[in-house]
Amino acid sequence: MAAPERRVGPGWESQFATNHLGHYVLVNLLFPLLASADGARVVSYSSAGHFLSDIRWDDMQFEHGYDKWQAYGQSKTADVLFAVHLDAIAKDRGVRAFAVHPGGIITDLQRHMTAEEQIAWGWIDAEGNVVGPGFKTPSQGAATGLWAATSPLLENRGGVYCEDCDIAPLARPGASGKDGGVRDYAVDPQNAERLWRASAQMTGVDLIGTSAT
Fold first, then answer.
1. Do residues 35 and 93 lie in contact, with contact meaning Cβ atoms separated by under 8 Å?
2. 48 and 180 in contact (C-beta within 8 Å)?
């Protein structure tokens, strides 16, 4: 999260490669096992950070100026879109997919941020105590992911964004990540298929198949 500019592989921006492309390839490679299981689910960890950026279709790899927060936001939007399209193309084979926002949690995820930055964001105080409203413990933060993976309430559901052990509503216009919900661009089926096609082209991997039809 909010990492300094790095390039991996053939020049991919590192947050997009780590948070999205790696997961995309892994799930494709595991798909034969998932499809042979009884009621397999894939849980993609997104974040309220997806409010920070849609997919930058014209400059996905930040070749024309790098912004660490937009790069993080794009990668978290990609995590939602991945779940949306994976569910669309895999549900007929018994695999459902969900995206989750675990909540605000202070962990090693913030290792690229200085204490001053975290204080300025209102996350911690000068002594390093967590003071951000609504912040969760790591155990509390694990709850929504576990719920998405196991809850019978999600039988015959998929392709949705979850937070606080529930399916999140669409965010209202002008809302921020602090308000909860999911931005419409992150659950748009056409955007999801477009990203899947782009990911397949970048990685050379598409074992599941791009089209939902």
1. yes
2. yes
Which residue, among 73, 21, 46, has the nearest Cα to 202 in the 3D structure? 21
Give the domains, in start order, of the chain with CATH numbers: 7-102+156-203 (3.40.50.720)
Q: Name residue 186's amino acid.
A: A
Q: What pLDDT, in 10s, does the model give residues 166-207? A: 999 999 998 998 899 999 999 999 999 999 999 999 999 998
pTM to 2 decimal places = 0.93
- Which residues are the active-site residues? 72
The number of angstroms, rounded, from the C-alpha of 41 to the middle of its chain's C-alpha atoms is: 15
Phi-psi sector, 149: left (phi>0), alpha (psi -120 to 50), beta:
alpha
Cα dist from 94 to 34, 79, 88, 201, 212, whole Å:
8, 20, 11, 26, 14
| pLDDT computed for residue 213 by the predictor | 43
**Residue numbers of the chain with a pLDDT score lower than 50:** 213
